Amino acid sequence: MIRKIECVCVPTKDIAASEAFYLSLGLRRAWIIERPQADGTTWTLIGLKFPDAASSELVLSDNPEIDFTEIELAVDDVRVSYAEIRSNPAVTWIREPFATESGHVAVMEAPDGNVFVLVGA
């Protein structure tokens, strides 16, 4: 069901400074998404690639509502995976599947308290 770790998304209060730091370590910017909010603010996601092309990504986020590291797990179909996992009473769903720019996402809390984001079609 889970194919790989897609990325690890880390929160930051200063996304420009964080990006500059990781670029200085040899990562490179692969993409950026700016998400305007209803209150007129915008928060940003920046995807960084490692020199090893087979590696997962490091993603920076300045979303003020998320102050913890998220591990994104790639699945073939988020809605199918959600349907298979949702009957497990030990899993708490933070967000049921929803559409994004690149497919679908669902957010769950595992029994050990860790948060995982399912990403895919």
The SSE order reads: EHEEEEHEEE
Q: Into which percentage range does the β-strand content fall? A: over 45%
Give the rounded overall mean pLDDT: 95
Kindly report the oligomeric state of this protein.
single chain
Which blocks of ≥5 consecutive residues have pLDDT under 50?
none
Q: How far is it from the N-terminal to the C-terminal residue, by CA?
A: 13 Å
The number of strands is 8
Strands of the biggest beta sheet: in what spatial order?
2-3-4-1-5-8-7-6
DSSP summary: helix tally? 2
Largest sheet: 8 strands, mixed
Give me the Rg, rounded: 15 Å
Helical/strand content category: mainly beta
Description:
Helix content is about 15%, strand content about 50%. The protein has about 120 residues and is mainly beta. Strands 2-3-4-1-5-8-7-6 form an eight-stranded mixed β-sheet. β3 (about 40-50) and β4 form a beta hairpin. The longest helix is centred in the first third of the chain and has 10 residues, at about 15-25. The two termini are about 15 Å apart. The mean pLDDT is about 95.
How are the SSEs ordered, and which strands pair?
Elements: E1 2-11, H1 15-24, E2 28-36, E3 42-49, E4 57-61, E5 70-75, H2 78-85, E6 92-100, E7 103-109, E8 115-120
Parallel strand pairs: 1-4, 5-8
Antiparallel strand pairs: 1-5, 2-3, 3-4, 6-7, 7-8
Q: How would you sum up this structure in a few lines?
A:
With 121 residues, the protein is mainly beta.
List keywords for this structure.
mainly beta; eight-stranded mixed sheet; 121 residues
